[in-house]
Amino acid sequence: MAGKDEALNSINEKIEELKLQVSDIMPGSSLKEVSEIFLEVATGLTGSQHGYLAFVDPENGDSVGISFSHLTGACQMYEDKGEARFKVLKDGRYGGLLGYSLDTGKSLHTNDPTNHPLSHGLPPLHEPVKSFLSVPVIYQGDILGQIVLGNAAKEYTPHEVEIAQKVAEVYAVVLKKLLYTK
What pTM did the predictor assign? Predict the structure, then answer.
């Protein structure tokens, strides 16, 4: 039990460090710069090889990936554009595994994403995804974005979901401040 408590304390310390780091750079920093920090922390704390941070565009509802690791050749195109934009569907949903947290406001993890009922495959030349974790970024009941992680060093468990949710709580404050407070 002591080992689990120590691990939880370590994670909480890293979340507090994240809050301080973000508050120090927020004045004058871009959403991209801040999101890169969150991506590094989320992947590091969960042992994830890859990650994707997105916000919901307040103007049109699109899911906009602002920080992401490179899983396809197209990722460089998105990096050059500064974002990966996924249009909200006509029914107001995003669909699939990638859209689950945005559609439901709930977290999801699977260690077999290929065979998950929500999976609709990967784009051509996409690196295989062996494990998948998604958490919504929620501020006062509003879904502002999501954190998606993949290809963990070990299988995802509810523990990694909890860690990602803690990161998402801090990221929600940042998104609210940078996108919705003018």
Answer: 0.87
Q: Do residues 161 and 133 lie in contact, with contact meaning Cβ atoms separated by under 8 Å?
A: yes
CATH architecture of 2-180: 2-Layer Sandwich (3.30)
How far is Cα 15 from Cα 76, in angstroms, rounded to an integer?
29
Contact 39, 145 (CB under 8 A): no
Mind listing the pLDDT tens digit for each residue in 22-44?
887 777 888 989 999 999 999 99
Distance of alpha carbon 89 from alpha carbon 112, whole angstroms = 26
Per-domain residue ranges for the chain? 2-180
Element (H, E) at 134: strand 132-139
Distance CA 147, CA 56 (A): 12
Q: Which amino acid is at 98?
A: L
**Torsion 41-167-15-11 (CA) sign:** negative
- What tokens appear for 59 in the block? 């103007």
> In whole angstroms, what is the distance from residue 16 CA to residue 11 CA?
9
Structural contact between residues 171 and 145, judged by C-beta atoms closer than 8 angstroms = yes
Query: Parallel, antiparallel, or unpaired for β 132-139 and 108-110?
Result: antiparallel
Answer for the pair 62, 69: CB distance below 8 angstroms, yes or no: no
